[in-house]
From TrEMBL:
Annotated family: Belongs to the ELO family.
Source organism of this protein record: Apis cerana cerana
Source organism superkingdom: Eukaryota
Localization of this protein: Membrane
Transmembrane feature ranges: 24-43, 107-130, 142-160, 166-184
Name listed for the protein in its UniProt record: Elongation of very long chain fatty acids protein
Length: 247
């Protein structure tokens, strides 16, 4: 096979046709370019730009950004549930449905919307740079943002089905809680003091979410990428039950 044919086979023919033509999904360049630009800004250009400048006061912007995130993530949770989660879709196992029926299509479109939202999430790190909060830009922070985008982009392009959307449902639910907490802490010292007791709980919720999503995606993608092309739902259910039991 020629190089062009190999590229076309793996990038286009094997992709999910329902999502491949949506914005940013068809190009192998745009999202990596956004990520590289992000890394360049937050790790090099941004700190140099702010070196001899005072931190920007972005309180109002941050408040509205948090409100946007609460609404956007709540909407994605609602869309996943209305597509069939917890009513028609099983948490433990569901055969992949690449059809154009309303439910599967809503799942696929919601996954694409989530990809777009994860790109918007990069704004958080830019805000840290402009506020000269460089100590908050840890390796883990940057790795989290970059890896999340790459993962959801890959899932949306190739496996935009109910089983891969479970992690999105959990993640967006946790983000509604997180950004509500972040918003409340911007309302002044009294509110910050009141909310301080909830910080360990928020951290614990984030860690549990991370473990659940990691285990779930690992099991699901192993089955999706199987050469057999068919799932053993009993096996998947047993694996997921074991994973959730460990959590």
């Amino acid at each position: 096979m020629k190089l062009v044919e190999i590229y076309n086979y793996y990038w286009n023919e094997k992709s999910d046709t329902r999502t491949n033509n949506l914005p940013l999904m068809g190009s192998p360049i745009i999202i990596p370019a956004i990520i590289l630009s992000y890394l360049y800004f937050v790790l090099k250009y941004g700190p140099q730009f702010m070196k001899n400048r005072k931190p920007y006061n972005l309180k109002t912007f941050i408040q509205w950004y948090n409100i946007f995130q609460i609404i956007a993530n709540a909407y994605l949770v609602q869309q996943n549930i209305s597509a069939g989660w917890f009513s028609e879709i099983s948490v433990y196992c569901e055969l992949p449905d690449y059809s154009y029926k309303p439910g599967p299509m809503k799942i696929a479109y919601t996954m694409w919307l989530t990809t777009m939202l994860k790109l918007i999430d990069l704004v958080e790190t830019v805000v840290f740079v402009l506020r000269k909060k460089q100590e908050q830009i840890s390796f883990l922070h940057v790795y989290h943002h970059v890896s999340t985008i790459l993962l959801i982009w890959f899932m949306t392009k190739y496996y935009a089905v109910s089983m891969t959307s479970f992690g999105i449902l959990i993640n967006c639910t946790v983000h509604v809680i997180m950004y509500t907490y972040y918003y409340l802490t911007t309302l002044g010292p009294n509110m910050q003091k009141m909310m301080s007791s909830y910080k360990p709980i928020i951290t614990s919720v984030q860690m549990v979410q991370f473990v659940i999503c990691t285990l779930d995606w690992h099991v699901t993608t192993r089955m999706l990428s199987s050469d057999q092309g068919l799932w053993d739902c009993e096996l998947v259910a047993e694996l997921k039950s074991s994973c959730y039991g460990l959590v």
